[in-house]
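Table S2 (text version). Query chain:
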Amino acid sequence: MLTDLQYAAVGKLTLSFNHIEWTFAELIAHLGGTENRGLRGSFSKKAGRLRSLLGNIEKGNPAINLAVHDLQIHIQKAEDVARLRNEYVHALVVHDFATNITKVRIKDDERILWPRELTLLAVESIMLAENIQRFGNELLSLL
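Corresponding structure-token output:
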């Protein structure tokens, strides 16, 4: 069984990451029209749709080019965090009775779940969401 701190860290990461998904959904709605509002599906589907919309933007203005480039960098960072988040959210909790240590199994790797590591990922998620929102607003103001 994980400790309360470990469970709280997983929850904090999960809820913090939702800010990125919400930001993606809002940007998709603004860039792609209201028919895209409430886009459902996986995070990777939203990331792909956002990339597609960014690819369709006219790139004649250097300021627009920079805003699109910054957003694409942050989409990649969000995808990297999403992979780590998914590893922890879908991990299996295992207990080693020989050592009396509880770990998480991610794929074929067993490791101790360190709350601080997940808290740092949660903070990174919030910062990414804020940056994506800022660059998105910048882009929208230029269009």
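Notes on Table S2: The chain has one domain: 4-79+116-142. The beta strands are 92-96, 101-106, 109-111.
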